[in-house]
Structure formats: structure tokens, C-alpha cells
Please model this.
Amino acid sequence: MRIGIIIGRIGGVDGVALETEKWIDVLRSMGHEIFIVSGQFQERSMDPVTETLVPEMSFFSPESYWSQKKAFFYPETDPQELIEHLNLYSKVIYKKILDWVRANKIELLISENASALPSHLEMGLAINKAVHKLGIPTITHDHDFAWERDDRYRSPHEEINKFVETVFPLMAPNSIHAVINTNAQITLKEKFGRDSVNVPNVMDFSLPFGIKNEKNSKLPGYLGYSDDDIFLYQITRIVKRKGIEVAIQLLDKLNEKRIKLIITGNYADDSGNKYYNELVELIHDLKLGEQVRFAYDMFHNRGLSNAKGQEMFSLSDGYAHANACTYFSTYEGFGNAFVEAVLAKRPIFVNNYKPVYMPDIGSKGFKTVMLEDNVLTEQAVNEVAEIINNPGLAQEIAMHNFELGKKHFSYDTLREKLQELIEKAVALVH
Model:
């Protein structure tokens, strides 16, 4: 089939973009032709034959930025101007989507989170109109919903709240939902009566990942450490829900100078740097400055050189030198970093983050040191110490988890789920 993917931003390291790339890989391997329309191609070359840029669809376009500000952060007294703005600019995007679909003879549409989360109001409305107008089979890949973000998408304008409830999620008769966890599947059914297919986030288990090589052999030295050190890697963004303070507290309780904590995320991800400053204060108070590195300036998603031509490392390089990974999140839509660690064959220390971890991941039988509510018990600390000081045990755990990951979160799983989705979507219009 000729499949068209609509996405606000593709490229970069956000979860929606990364998972979309995996869908594209698998759909192409299934023989489908893929066409992409996006508001931004980030750190990614654009193919002018199969890929189309619509600047108005960018989350950072003046139109979208203004409406997000007026709808949720700095609302005007009278919302009428905002409503007129949404209608006007959604028509611009709507027309460009229709032209793109017709020019490329698209037979099936995939909306990548743009019909689930109201982070671009005009694009969501435009897709809604286009899907109803075209009547072609449509899959909405729903990574997260407004109700999962507390009050982020709650407006003081009731007109905007009604708009969001009407447009997000898309509820066209020719559309089917793909969600990424069981909780979303249950909630979507309870709130809207909509069925969905639960499609987990996946990794390509056929490719080498987290392997030591000549290039990344330099990594410990670049960090100021030695090959004999024991490395715990926190390969996530620096945002409060990632629970990075627990990894720092764990380092303190392990009380072993050879153990180092490497944090790859960028403090720029933390709005106002409040959480980053809290982590810095904690490191200072616990006198762990020599054992913790904020190494964001050394890592790039694809391991490219930076603007100064300095060598940078990929996340795979980081996993290659990790003795284990810390992942003490309090909430995740799924948990890509968990599956990455499994793929890299590294032990994982994890918090039972609600509501996803146990129903969708932990229940599969993975061997981890798991905390409840991020409480570092003496038993948990002892289990961590045993694993990182016993390479044979660490390897045994890692291989067990790798085989489970390959079974449940591989491209084979995604291929089966996509086939099911396509068949169900096509059946809706026949």
C-alpha cells in the first residue's frame, strides 16, 4: 500500500519520532511505500520524492506557539480571537494535507500522536477534518493523551476544553487506534468507547547494540575515569519524573569509590534548570562530585561530531561501557530506555513506575532490582552491589532479559501488530 505518515517533527531523540522511524523501517520491510509529511525534519535529511515539509505543522511555528500560549499559559479574557485563529490556520494545514494525499495517491494514513495529544491544536483539527473528508483507512498512533499530563492541557477557556475533548483523540469511523500501553487501552475504551490495538515500543534485536569497539574504547578516559571503574549509566533526559536523584542516592549507599554514575541527558531539557540544580545540590551534599559525570556534551543520538569537529559518542557507545543501568522513573508512557538496556545486554535497576511497568513490561518475567515508590531498601542496595561486583551473574541476568526482550519487544512483534492494524483499518471502509 501507499501509506502516508503525518507527524509534527521527525528526527531527533523524542520518543514519538524515534518510534515512528521504527514503524517506517518495518512497514517498508513489509513491502509498503511510505510517504511522510512533517512540520520539521530534525537532524535528518529530507527526501524530496517521498517527504514533504509543511512549516505550519511544526510545534515551533509562530501559529502553533501562539495558540498554545493563549490556550493554556497566558489566556486572553475573550477566547474568540483564539477560536478564529484555530479555524483559520487549521484550514491552511487541512488543504496541504489533502493536496499531499492526492498528489501521492495515499491509500492509508497514520497520524503520529498528532491526533492524541493537543500539543498542536491546528494540526489536530486539520487531520480530523482531512480524515473525515477523505474517508480512507486511518491509524492513529497514540503515544500519550491530554488526561495523562495532569493540567498541562486544561484551559481556563471552556470553549478550548470542549474543542480538545472533541478533536483529541480522533474518533472518525474510518480510524483505528494504536496505543502503547494497557492503561491507555483501558482508559480509551472507558472514556470514549473506542477499541484499540496495544503496540509496544520496540527495538531491532537483529542489530548489534551496546558493543565495545575501537572508537568507544576511549570513552572512560574522556570521562576522566579508568577502564577498571564500575559504571552505572543513566541514559535518559534530565527531567524530574526520571528519578535521577535515586540513582545518586544509590551511589552514596553503595559506598564504593570505583563506582561512577554517568548521566547522559542535557540539563536544557529541564525547564528553568530547577531539577538539575536539585541534583547538583544533592551531589554536593553527599560529596559525590568525583563519582558523578553530567556527560551530555559527549553524547549524540547518532554519535556524530559536534560543531567544533570534536568526536562524540552514541547512546550505543554509552551502553557498551555500562556495567548496569539505572531507571528510577516515576512515570513513563512505555519505557524505551528499559528496552534499550535489555537490547544492550545490561542489568537494569528500575522503579515500578505506574501505571505501565508491571502490566506491560515487568510481568513478562524480566530480572531486575525493582524498587517500589523509589524506596532504596537495604535489600535492594545489597542486590545491586552483588550484581555489579559479579560479572558472571550480571551476564546471566542480561542474557535472560535479552531473550525476553527479543520475544516481546522486537521488530517481529511490531510487524505482527502493524499487519493487524492495517487489516482492521482497511476493514472499516469496506
